[in-house]
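Q: Here's a chain of 86 amino acids. Please give me its 3D structure as tokens.
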Amino acid sequence: MTAPDHEAQQAPSQKKICPDLTNAVWHGSDEPTPAGGGRIEVAFVEDVICMRNGEDPNSPVLVFTKAEWDAFVEGAKDGEFDLPLE
């Protein structure tokens, strides 16, 4: 069975092609996200980081460069993506 052929979801001017994910090792939590959404999985493939919906392995894959991934992780640590308190 081969991995689905996904293209990265990016702005048209910055479109990246998702690498071959056939042998990708996906890492994720068994817990859903705190906001009640699905869980995510990430794979470090070639020189990019791929992210997908862990509940649907055939879902679209987001592709990040190392710099983009580092900025995302730092933003998460800083609370940039936290939901507002009710």
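Q: Can you summarize the key feature?
A: The longest strand covers residues 40-45.
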